[in-house]
Design a protein that fits this description.
globular, Rhopdopsin 7-helix transmembrane proteins
């Protein structure tokens, strides 16, 4: 490999090294905290190591993206001015800057988290400013990196369009297609990481700046308030999603980089896809089964909570119940489809597939529409309470739920018939070269429209609630705890929807868009398996968040737990 080609992979190697360091820090940091009993020196080392891997990972992403931009848009500058040694120097500069920031922030963070620190770091003069500075830097760095990636992707598409208008088709080669795939896949992985990182950072900032002066330490703040549970849950979700993102990153690099893909094609990728399919089957099916149990329990608890409420309180739970029921149906449909796809020995008929796909489409459409109405019910209840009390009656809400399910069913049945025809022969014919492609694009287009509309509307409601909260605090109006819990629930809903949008649209959409879903079945199987795995984790987390952040449901669950403990205690005494 000559220097001209090496320049493209300098930042990629740095990024891979940072990813490896990040995975090591995710595994070792909790172990170090427990094993060393918050010793300052161990805490400082692992926090610096973790922050260094994070910052260098961002530098690798920015460097890789900008290098691709220069290669395509400014090839003369890339060949003559941007030498291999300059790229190495830029990587070294990235790492040196990362080390400086990581050592400074990591040492101070270890001082107020660890024991036997060589210097004191109290909450008001040291801990709070450093925490705010670190979170601000992380958020700005993530937004800046996403902005750079978006700019480069947009510039490449514009450059390709102008090249075609000039009659220069050199930019439409397979290499250009691989570049776009690699950039879009990187944007997907990094965007998923950034959403959860920024969300957790915003929650932690809210936690810190909403407390009184009576606390002397961040640990006292978290231990003495309900924010501890929120931060722990979001931190666990963040760690999980960050690990999944680091898992996706090398897979997309292998799939869409021409040199990597040629090297990887020498291996038996079909066997790898088959192994991953079966591993994902057992893992995702187990998670789906567990999430089905949790969703059923959450639904029964919500119904038990709903019955004794008055009319005004019931209005909030109408679409919550619809959403929970749709989640149960979606999980059941996914379990049926997962089992059928891997049971090759049992031939399933066209009727079975038509029912299964229609059932899945219906449950998913009703789930997304329920998400929208849950968001708007919270919005009207907080921002427009008079309209909520006078116009939104229970009768209107019941009719809306029925209309929602009818619309979902009318959309699901025709699409389910063609999806079934694409899998098995039946009364509806669907050839491989034309009909299957049309069904893929129709399914993908409907999914894009419904998911993006759901994300945009829910995002509007979340932003409106945070703005209303800011205006209330600015005017000295006390915000109730119910409004705070509703805002947290909707924030999780928005994050979950963004994640569902990514995993449902991006990987399979790229393969369909680049016409690879049928040409490379192993790649399609790998992407579909990873998509199913991440989706199962979302459906597992959703009922847990509903239980924790709904006051009435959480109180009911607490009574259930108390009854179970009493039952076991009485049996233990009897023995």
């Amino acid at each position: 490999m000559d220097d001209r080609v090496k320049k493209r992979y300098v930042f990629l190697i740095s990024r891979a090294l940072s990813s490896t360091m990040s995975i090591i820090s995710i595994v070792l940091l909790p172990v170090a905290i427990l094993a060393t009993d918050y010793n300052f020196w161990f805490m400082a080392f692992f926090i610096i190591f973790d922050m260094l891997s994070f910052l260098s990972f961002l530098g690798g992403i920015v460097g890789t993206t900008v290098t691709i931009y220069v290669v395509v848009v400014h090839p003369t500058y890339y060949r003559r001015e941007l030498s291999y040694h300059k790229c190495v120097i830029l990587v070294i500069v990235f790492w040196v800057c990362s080390v400086i920031v990581a050592v400074g922030c990591g040492t101070v963070q270890a001082a107020f988290m660890g024991k036997n620190s060589p210097f004191e770091c109290d909450y008001h003069t040291c801990e709070k400013p450093v925490l705010f500075f670190a979170i601000t830097c992380i958020s700005v760095a993530l937004v800046f990196s996403l902005g750079i990636q978006s700019f480069v992707i947009f510039s490449l598409f514009r450059h390709e369009k102008k090249s075609k208008e000039r009659g220069d088709f050199s930019s439409t080669t397979r290499a250009m297609t691989g570049v776009k795939r690699r950039l879009i896949s990187g944007f997907f992985v990094f965007g998923m990481m950034a959403v959860f990182e920024i969300t957790s950072a915003v929650m932690l900032v809210q936690c810190v700046f909403s407390v009184t002066d009576e606390f002397t330490s961040l640990c006292d703040i978290l231990s003495s308030s309900r924010y501890r549970l929120e931060v722990v849950i979001f931190s666990a979700i963040l760690t999980l999603l960050w690990g999944i993102g680091l898992f996706f990153d090398p897979i997309f690099t292998i799939m869409f980089d021409p040199i990597f893909s040629r090297q990887f094609s020498r291996h038996d990728i079909s066997s790898a896809g088959l192994v991953l399919e079966w591993v994902t089957l057992y893992v995702s099916t187990s998670i789906f089964f567990l999430s089905a149990i949790l969703n059923v329990y959450s639904f029964i608890t919500a119904v038990y909570t709903y019955i004794p409420l008055d009319s005004d309180a019931r209005k909030h739970y109408v679409f919550v119940l619809s959403r929970m029921l749709s989640s149960i149906l979606t999980v059941c449909a996914l379990l049926i489809l997962e089992c059928s796809l891997f049971t090759k020995e049992v031939p399933f008929s066209f009727t079975f597939y038509a029912f299964a796909f229609s059932f899945y489409n219906f449950s998913l459409d009703s789930l997304l529409i329920s998400y929208i109405f849950v968001s708007f019910m919270t919005y009207f209840g907080v921002v427009h309470p008079i309209f909520y009390q006078e116009k939104l009656t229970l009768k209107v809400l019941y009719l809306t739920v029925v209309a929602t399910w009818i619309v979902s069913l009318s959309l699901a049945i025709p699409l389910g018939l063609f999806q079934a025809a694409a899998n098995v022969p039946g009364p509806v014919s669907c050839d491989l070269h034309y009909c299957v492609k049309v069904v893929e694009w129709i399914t993908f287009s409907l999914a894009c429209f419904t998911l993006l509309m759901t994300v945009l509307l829910t995002g509007f409601v979340v932003v409106s609630l945070y703005w209303h909260h800011y205006q209330a605090k600015k005017n000295g109006i006390k915000v109730s705890g119910a409004v705070d819990r509703a805002r947290v629930r909707l924030t999780w809903t928005f994050v979950a929807l963004v994640l569902i949008c990514f995993i449902e649209l991006f990987p399979v959409g790229m393969l369909i868009g680049f016409n690879q879903s049928m040409q490379f079945p192993a790649q399609y199987a790998i992407v579909s398996s990873l998509e199913t795995l991440v989706g199962s984790l979302v459906f597992l987390t959703d009922p847990i968040v509903n239980i924790f952040f709904d006051k009435n449901i959480s109180q009911t669950v607490k009574r259930h737990m108390t009854w179970i403990r009493t039952l076991f205690s009485s049996k233990t005494v009897a023995l």
